[in-house]
Amino acid sequence: MADDNKEFLIGVDLGGTKILTGVFDARFELKGTAKLSTKADRGVEAVIERIARCVKDAVDECDLSLKRIRGVGIGAPGAVDAESGRVIFAPNLPGWKDVPLKKELEKVLDVPVFVGNDCNVCTLGTFDCEYKSKPKHLVGIFLGTGIGGGLVIDGELYCGHNLTAGEIGHMVIAVNGPKCGCGNRGCLEALASRTAIFRKIQSAVKDGQKTILTDMLGPELADMRSGDLRKAIRKGDKFVEKIVEEAAEYAGIGVANLINILNPEIVVVGGGLIEALENEIMPALIKAAKDHVMPGTMSGIEIEASKLGDHAGITDAAVLARRATS
Ligand SMILES: [Zn+2]
């Protein structure tokens, strides 16, 4: 039985550059937030100390004490053993190899802590918060710097034998395609992530391709952001439009594979690229998915952009804590 006095939940969005925390009440309303830079280069212990501080700051912001907190959920950017709460590896957090994050935070906070991979946590949060009708099966795919995903099957997060399921970004789409950060070739992430799009644009510009982007950002295309691509496309830059469309098609082929294998009711597409370029990406992605699924298997399946806004990361992480403590 949950202790009625411990009615608040905390969600932590742990990123490579910033830590966000939010306190949610029994009705799952956001009562207060806090934010700290991650300072990942200071090492594992320093980051854990900063997560704890950011949790305490959010609690203090709400004039509460940690005694009123039922659980803390964390979405971490990397491979996570969700059962033991260990971060096995996190590419954007230097030194993070087999870190007992749950244990260390519970020692400091004296509150139950639950850790999950950020894309898995995001999929679970989307499932609980966005879909009141509760589809049984849902796939989440997140297009950003990399590509991550999560699988909800029969209403539960599917983690697989070694708890690494849902690595949608490393589905091989193009044999002999471009090299991926994982060491493989032709992964979806190497074809359709923001990094892949930027790399393609930069290499074409080096080869003499003309684009409005060089007028906007200079010949080196320094500090290019997803929003710059949107501006260029809206100004009529056909080259940028084509590169983004190609990436969207690759993502659509990935979605078709997932539909063929899992036949989910909903495929929800989110991440930084979708936030910036939803109108430019979604139509081409949906068309490519429809063109590549096995005939007859798309009936009643929706592919849609995620709607959760600014507080998605902390909300989804709090959902993890809510599920684990109720
Ligand atoms: Zn890969």
Q: How does this model look, in words?
A:
- The model has no long low-confidence stretch (mean pLDDT 94).
- This protein is globular.
- Helix 8 (238-262) packs across helix 9.
- By secondary structure, the chain is α/β, with parallel strands linked by helices.
- It has helices spanning 44-61, 101-109, 118-130, 189-192, 194-206, 212-217, 226-234, 238-262, 272-292, 312-325; strands at residues 8-14, 18-24, 30-37, 69-76, 79-81, 86-89, 97-99, 113-117, 138-143, 147-153, 156-157, 266-270, 302-305.
- 44% of the residues are buried.
- Bound molecules: zinc ion (ZN).
- Zinc ion is lined by residues 170, 180, 182, 184, 187, 189.
Name a few traits of the molecule:
13 strands, binds zinc ion, 326 residues, five-stranded mixed beta sheet, alpha/beta
Main sheet: strands, sense, barrel: 5 strands, mixed
Molecules bound to protein: zinc ion
The general outline is globular
**Count, helices:** 10
Strand sequence of the main sheet, in spatial order? 3-2-1-4-8
What is the H/E string?
EEEHEEEEHEHEEEHHHHHEHEH
The helix-and-strand class reads: alpha/beta
Strand content: 15-25%
Give the SSE layout.
Elements: E1 8-14, E2 18-24, E3 30-37, H1 44-61, E4 69-76, E5 79-81, E6 86-89, E7 97-99, H2 101-109, E8 113-117, H3 118-130, E9 138-143, E10 147-153, E11 156-157, H4 189-192, H5 194-206, H6 212-217, H7 226-234, H8 238-262, E12 266-270, H9 272-292, E13 302-305, H10 312-325
Parallel strand pairs: 1-4, 4-8, 9-12, 12-13
Antiparallel strand pairs: 1-2, 2-3, 5-6, 6-7, 9-10, 10-11
Helix pairs in contact: 1-2, 3-10, 5-8, 7-9, 8-9
The chain binds zinc ion.
The site of zinc ion (ZN) has 6 residues, from loops.
